[in-house]
Specification:
It contains 8 helices and 9 strands. Among the domains are: about 70 residues, 434 Repressor (Amino-terminal Domain), CATH 1.10.260; about 70 residues, Immunoglobulin-like, CATH 2.60.40. It is of the alpha+beta class. The strands form 2 sheets. The protein has a 5-stranded antiparallel sheet with strand order 3-2-5-9-8, with no helix packed on it. A 4-stranded antiparallel sheet has the order 4-1-6-7, with no helix packed on it.
């Protein structure tokens, strides 16, 4: 007997279902920060120069390995700084953290990599007499300064007599520098050295300057509201972090940093 068409259809092999496509990896704060850094052409070393965190901490953030970082407050702070450098909104990244954050650490820690340790309870008790002695000496110093230097503070005493009276205690010399200004308009005179670099920092900025010999003649983190003058042999190679908050004068010329700035880091050469 011949098989019926229905039987033939029943015996035919049913094709297996194709495996479903693997879903893409979910977005995470570290992955988004890493992709933004690579798109900006920045290395991890350049990031650490700009926001002053260690390379291992930046790598831990990009790997979402937050357990290696000291507490949730630190994690939120580094993500905010990193996002600002890459011109990202930090709030969506912070919302993604969720349960990835390490538990809050309310203990007081010594600064990292300084070799310092916090005193135990017995050591703290031993420090109390020393602290009292320091406060007593400070009070004596203030009293001496009031007596010898302030108007109406008693009988005036010559510097030699003051030194004899206080024994080994020497009052610190304080010098306040005022910006130079001419008598007519109050403006600072132009720099006499045409090879002089003058930096004015409205916000914190890491700055590095190399001279014609490729030697670093200036490299440091500069606090907000400070001014630095650098002299050397041009051409100069400059790297200026947080460049939007820095004013640069070269000799008598004001230098516009915007054409040389990428991700708020300016790189330029001045002849």
């Amino acid at each position: 007997m011949s098989e019926t068409p229905d039987a033939q259809q029943t015996d035919e092999a049913v094709p297996e279902a194709l495996p479903s496509a693997q879903p893409p990896s979910p977005a995470s704060p570290g992955r988004l920060l890493r992709e933004a850094r690579l798109a900006s052409g920045l290395s991890i070393a350049e990031v650490t120069q700009s926001i002053k965190f260690a390379e291992r901490q930046i790598e831990a953030v990009e790997s979402d390995d937050f357990d290696k970082l000291p507490g949730s407050t630190f994690v939120r702070g580094i993500i905010r700084s990193y996002s600002k450098l890459l011109r990202l909104d930090p709030e969506p990244l912070l919302l993604m953290l969720g349960e990835q954050l390490p538990p809050a650490d309310n203990a007081v820690h010594a600064p990292e990599d300084t070799g310092a340790k916090l005193p135990v309870s017995g050591e703290r008790r031993n420090l109390i007499p020393l602290l009292a002695l320091v406060l007593t000496l400070a009070a004596i110093g203030i009293a001496l300064m009031s007596y010898f230097n302030w108007p109406g503070g008693g009988e005036k005493t010559s510097p030699a007599q003051a030194k004899t009276s206080v024994g080994q205690v020497q009052l610190p010399a304080v010098r306040i520098e005022q910006p130079a200004a001419d008598q007519a308009g109050g403006a600072a005179p132009p720099a006499a050295d045409s090879h002089q670099l003058i930096f004015v920092f409205a916000d914190k900025s890491w700055t590095e300057v190399k001279d014609a010999t490729q030697k670093i003649i200036f490299g440091q983190n500069n606090p907000a509201g400070t001014r630095q003058v650098v002299s050397g042999k041009p051409p100069y190679e400059l790297v200026i972090g947080n460049a939007s908050s820095v004013q640069l004068q070269y000799g008598d010329r004001q230098i516009d940093l915007r054409p040389y700035t990428r991700v708020d880091v300016a790189r330029l050469t001045l002849e």
